[in-house]
Amino acid sequence: MRFTPRHAAALCTAWLMVLPACREAQSVKYSGPYGDLVAKYVPQVEKATGLTFKSPPKVERRSTDEVRTFLEKEFNENLPTLELEGASRAYKLLGLLPDTLDLRRYMLKLLGEQVIGYYDPATKVLYVVSDTSAGRAALVEVTIAHELVHALQDQYIPLDSIQKQRDDNDRQTAAQSVMEGQATYEQMSSMLGGDMAVRMPGGWDRVREMIRENQTAMPVFASAPMLLQETLLFPYLSGAEYIRRYKQAKTGRTPWQPLPASTEQVMHYEKYVAGERPLKVELPPLLTGTAVYENDLGEFETRLFLFQALQDLGTSARSAEGWGGDRYVVANLPGGAGISWVTVWDTPIDAGEFREAAQRAAQRRLGVAGTGADTKRFEAKGRVIEISTATVQGKAAIIWTDVPAGSGTRLIDAAKVRLTEK
To answer: For residues 379 and 365, is the Cβ–Cβ distance under 8 A?
Structure first.
C-alpha cells in the first residue's frame, strides 16, 4: 500500500549526493530562492523529458517544522484513520506487519527522518527546507532536480487526482511508480548530463545497489518492516526501470499515455506493451461477519507476501508471476478479525504454483496441514488458515482465508465473485 504522500521524495534520493553533477551553462535567470539551481535544472529537465514548462516553476522556502506539519497533514488526508486502520489490519493478518506496530505513529516518524523538500500540486509550488544542516544542505540540489520533474508533470497531468485515487492500491502504486520513476530517472540523467544507465559506472544495476545501500544511513527506514521498506522503494526502483525501458522503446509519447494499470505492468514492461490488462475482482457480500475494509495487493505485494514467509526471492517471484487480479476483505467476526483473499491467475499452472507456495507460507506460520484435495487447513496459535481452489468465470482462483479459531472459514461465496477488465 502507498503509505506515504508522494511528496516525501527525499526518502529515496539521498544517495544521489554521491553522483557527479553536470555543470551546464544557465540560459534563464530565476528570481527567488534557489534561483541558480532552478535555472540550471529547468533546461536539463525539459531536454530529458522532451516537455517544456508552460509557466515558470515557483520555489519557496519553508522551515523544517512547516514542512513536517504539511507532510503530516497530507498523510492524514490521504490516509484517513479508518482506511489506514483497515489496511494495517489486513497486512497484519497476512503476516506482513507485526501485530504490535502502530502504523500511523511509525509512518509519521519515518516521514520526519528526511524532510528536504516537496512539490505541492495544490499550490503549484516547490517547497524547500530553509534550515538544513550542513549535511542535509547537500541534498537540496538533488531534491530540486527531482521535484522540478514533478512540477513539469503537473502541468501536463493532474498529479493531485492521481495521488488521491482510492480503493485500488495496485493501480495507485503503478501510477505513482511512473511519476516517481520518471522524476528519479530524469533527475539522475540531468545530474549526470546524459543517459545515466550509460554514464554511471556499473550501469543500472549499480544504480539500484546504491539506492538500497544508502538507505542504511536512515535509522528509521533501516529498522522498518520489509513491507514498508519495499513499498517505499518500489516506485523509485521499479518505476525508474520502467521509464528506462519506455525511453528505449522510443514511443514518441509521454510515459503516462496511458498509465500502467497494475504493478504487474510496471514490473513486466512487455505486458504493458502487449496491453495485458489486470482483472478487477468484485467480491460478494460476506456470508458471515461484518466487512470493514477491502482492497487489493497486486503482483508486487503478492510477491512480498510470499517472500515474508518463505524468505526465498526466486520462489516468491516465480509464484507471483501469472497473477491476473486479486481482492481481499477484512471482516469483524465474533472471535476477532479475519480476512478472505481471492486471487485469480492467467493459467491453472500459475494458480497451482501460487497455491503450493501459499501452503508453504501457511505451514511456516501455523504448522502441519490437514488433508483435503481442494482445501488445505492449517490450525494453531488460535488461528485457522484455509487455502482452497475455485474457478471464477473460467479463471483458476485461489482463496486464502485466515480467521480466529472457532470461526467459520467460508466468508464468501466463490460462485458469486465477478471479474471485469480494469
So the answer is: no
Number of helical (H) and strand (E) elements in the chain, helices listed first: 17, 11
Domains of the chain by range and CATH?
9-273 (no CATH), 279-421 (3.40.1000)
Please give the grid coordinates belonging to residue 24.
551546464
How far apart, in whole angstroms, are the C-alpha atoms of residue 142 and residue 133? 15
Residues forming a β-bridge with 183: none
Q: Alpha carbon of 294 to those of 261, 290, 328: distances in Å? A: 18, 12, 6
Q: Is 60 helix (H, G, I), strand (E, B) or coil?
A: strand
Cα–Cα distance, 142 to 139 (Å, whole number):
5
Q: Are 152 and 49 in contact (CB under 8 A)?
A: yes
Note the helical H segments in 283-341: 298-310, 313-320
pLDDT tens per residue across all 422 residues of the chain: 665 544 444 444 444 444 444 444 455 678 788 999 999 999 999 999 999 999 999 999 988 888 888 888 888 888 888 899 999 999 999 999 999 999 999 998 887 776 788 899 989 999 998 865 655 666 888 889 999 999 999 999 988 877 777 789 999 999 999 999 999 999 888 877 666 555 555 566 766 676 666 666 788 988 999 999 999 999 998 999 999 899 989 888 899 989 999 999 999 999 999 999 999 999 999 999 999 999 999 999 999 999 999 999 999 999 999 999 999 999 999 999 999 999 999 999 999 999 999 999 999 998 876 666 678 999 998 999 999 999 999 999 999 999 999 999 999 999 999 999 98
Q: Minimal CA–CA distance to 347: which of 315, 322, 320?
A: 322
| Burial classification of residue 61, based on how many CB atoms lie within 10 Å of its CB (0-12 exposed, 13-18 middle, 19 or more buried) | middle
Burial of 140 (0-12, 13-18, 19+ CB in 10 A): buried
Measured CA distances, 404 to 89, 270, 334 (Å): 14, 41, 9
Q: Can you spell out the DSSP letters for 355-395? A: HHHHHHHHHHHH-PBPP-SSEEEEEETTEEEEEEEEEETTE
Query: How far apart are the C-alpha atoms of 302 and 298, rounded to whole Å?
Result: 6
Give the CA angle between residues 226, 381, 303 to the nearest 5°: 30
Residue 82, all three cell numbers: 479508518
- Residue 344 grid coordinates: 485469480
∠ CA 146-259-164, rounded to 5°: 70
Which three cell numbers, joined as nine digits, stand for 35?
Answer: 534561483
